[in-house]
Write a structure and sequence with these properties.
The protein is α/β, with parallel strands linked by helices and 445 residues long. 47% of the residues lie in helices and 17% in strands. The protein binds beta-D-glucopyranose (BGC).
């Protein structure tokens, strides 16, 4: 290292340190989240919506075939799921759909028509003419019944014209009828976090009827959110991506990102904007551009794909973290693919910054879990299960260990050991089927 380079190196290190999220910032955040839950539940002003879900924990004995639609990110899926004995779930067929940026900004009906046609292809191929359908709509929506969900603000880069205020289950039902699928009947609509929670409970109780159900459902992918079983208040969708008590860990990069995006609006989805896969790469990109100018990392500020918002995503972050070669060869290849040459030192910097951003996300998730669990059980005396799904949890090397570390820091080893995290990979479609079957059984009770 030359004498000239030292201040620049220090600037990069200081920038990474801004993402530290120490316990002194996480503890107040966790407490604030518990308070927001209490307020949201009684309808007082709160950044947590605490939405009703109109479904109770499954018995584990639910059975049958359910058509499922999972729409929650850049992709949607239509499928057919079979629930069998002993908590078993089989995906009999599935088709994925991808959406263009134009789809995301257009009218809702064409998107619902694309989904309905996919349902048509799947059911036709499986010879199913008559079946209940479960719709997982993973955006904020206020359920008024198990089969009616009024869209609230959009998230994750979607901005369909005039969708807010409409019943998304009704829109899908209408699209199914336009597609000639009158006998595929929308039976339940739910959030993905609820599907994750319900699937974990179904599997556990299917194997052992007396098993404890999951207490919390966490999704950590393109977006992030939590659902929790609040006992008498039922299973609630917190919409925790909108939690706004994050001032203590905010960096200037977060503030600028929030200010410059128009959907979600500034001030909305603040927690999600620091934590979820849709944003982590963008935070890194912003840090690199800034340091390129200020810390003599010219490659980062020169014209390249790095000038384009959202050019980096969380898969890039995962790749960077997974590169264990001495020369960071894969980081080199990745940067080159974006038109950015790099020195070994710059690659080490990119890796350190990416790791700091992902680590902060994990620590924020840990704090949010602590805040949620304390609402259920202030002293955390009982055992608790958190069902988790999502590409960031499953794909970022060591993410779970970082969350665990935070739980231990906030709660101490003994309490943290009572919290189990169960990774329920690809839970949405299967969980949707459980929701529809549980809702049907609960209706007939
Ligand atoms: C949505 C939630 C969803 C989460 C995870 C967020 O952007 O608002 O409804 O559960 O993403 O998919």
């Amino acid at each position: 290292m030359t004498a000239m380079a030292a201040p620049d190196e220090a600037l990069v290190a200081r920038t990474a340190a801004r993402f530290a999220a120490p316990v002194s910032a996480l503890e107040p955040l966790a407490r604030d989240l518990t308070r927001h839950m209490a307020r949201g539940l009684v309808g007082e002003p709160s950044s947590l919506k605490m939405l009703q879900t109109f479904v109770r924990q499954p018995s584990g004995r639910e059975q049958g075939r359910v058509v499922v639609v999972d729409w929650g990110g850049t992709k949607a899926r239509a499928g057919l799921v079979e629930l069998g004995a002993g908590g078993s779930v089989r995906i009999l067929a599935e088709e994925a759909l991808t959406f263009s940026d134009a789809d995301k900004r257009g009218a809702p009906e064409p998107v619902f028509d694309l989904i309905a046609r996919a349902v048509g292809r799947v059911t036709h191929a499986q010879g199913v003419a008559l079946a209940p359908l479960a719709f997982v709509y993973s955006y904020p929506a206020r359920l008024e019944r198990i089969d009616r969900a009024v869209a609230m603000a959009s998230t994750k880069g979607w901005r369909l014209k005039g969708l807010v205020g409409q019943d998304v289950a009704g829109l899908l039902g209408a699209a199914l009828r336009r597609a000639g699928l009158e006998r595929i009947v929308l039976a339940a609509v739910a959030n993905d976090t609820v599907a994750t929670l319900m699937l974990q409970s179904y599997r556990a109780r299917g194997r052992d009827a007396g098993a404890r159900p999951a207490d919390v459902g966490l999704v950590l992918g393109t977006g992030t959110n939590l659902a929790a079983d609040l006992g008498p208040a039922g299973i609630r969708n917190l919409e925790s991506g909108n939690f706004d008590g994050v001032g203590g860990v905010e960096t200037p990069y977060d503030a600028a990102l929030d200010r410059e995006l128009d959907e979600p609006a500034p001030g909305a989805q603040l927690f999600e904007k620091m934590v979820s896969g849709h944003y982590l790469g963008e935070i890194l990109r912003r840090a690199l551009r800034d340091l390129g100018a200020r810390a003599a990392r010219d490659h980062w500020s020169a014209p390249s794909a790095l000038a384009t918002p959202f050019a980096l995503d969380s898969e890039h972050l995962s790749r960077i973290a997974a590169d264990h070669t001495g020369g960071l060869d894969d980081v080199d290849a990745l940067l080159r693919s974006l038109g950015v040459p790099s020195t070994a030192e710059e690659r080490r910097d990119v890796r350190a910054l990416g790791a700091a951003i992902a680590r902060r996300a994990a620590r924020l998730v840990g704090a949010a879990l602590v805040g949620t669990l304390r609402f259920l059980d202030a002293e955390l005396v009982g055992r608790r299960t958190i069902a988790v799904d999502g590409s960031l949890w499953g794909g970022y090397p060591g993410f779970e260990a970082l969350v665990r570390e935070t739980l231990v820091e906030l709660l101490g080893g003994e309490r943290a050991a009572r919290i189990e995290t169960a990774y329920v990979k690809d839970s949405t479609s299967a969980g949707a089927a459980v929701i529809a079957a549980a809702a049907a059984a609960q209706r007939s009770e």
